[in-house]
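Memo to structure team: turn this sequence into structure tokens by end of day. - J.P.
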Amino acid sequence: QVHLVESGGGLVQAGGSLRLSCAASGNIFSFNTNTVRWYRQAPGKQRELVAVFSSAGGTYYTDSVKGRFTISRDNAKNSVYLQMNSLKPEDTAVYYCNLDQTWGEGTQVTVSS
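Reply from structure team:
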């Protein structure tokens, strides 16, 4: 069993940056060798996939964040990161880290205009 904890959210003005972290504990081998995803859910909207770091080292981004967000992983720290630049008000959401069926509790990102 792996446990995920997100951090790094906060309130930022449009155009600003935040770096989210997803730290794993428990079954670290599973975390470090499998695909990890970042999702977000805005108020009144469905949860959407934002970025993926695959087990093979590939990355994927949803169109709305391409060129602004970067996902990375540090297996030595059992962590996956989401660097978010040029933030927009529409990026406001709770951001969740995901590994298979395991989810963190999320971290709130609020971007003011």
